[in-house]
Amino acid sequence: QGGNSMPGFSLSQSSSQGDPNDDYCACCHNGGDVLCCDRCPKVFHLQCHIPELSAVPSGSFVCTICAGDSPVNNEEITSSGKRKSSGGLSG
């Protein structure tokens, strides 16, 4: 018979055709009503996104991952927010 469904589960065929966004929340990996990032294929439930969103934003939406995505130029950020060289330890 269908081959794409089990009791309580169905596989959507339309989502894989022409939709660049993921089908499941990037945080909890569940489907449902999700918000699509306009820069990457990730999708999020409002309550799963960090910071949590209380409503669907008007206009375009960029997830926290993309909003903070900037080149670090061979430096790493320490927990205090300062940058330090990634040169490593010398013997």
TrEMBL record:
Feature: compositional bias, Polar residues: 10-19
Question: GO molecular function, one example?
Answer: zinc ion binding
List the Pfam families. Answer: PHD (PF00628)
UniProt-annotated stretches for the region Disordered = 1-20, 69-91
Top-level lineage group:
Eukaryota
All residue ranges annotated as the PHD-type domain in the record: 22-69
What keywords are annotated for this sequence in UniProt? Metal-binding, Zinc, Zinc-finger
Write down what this protein is called.
PHD-type domain-containing protein
Q: Quote the gene name from the UniProt entry.
A: ORF222787
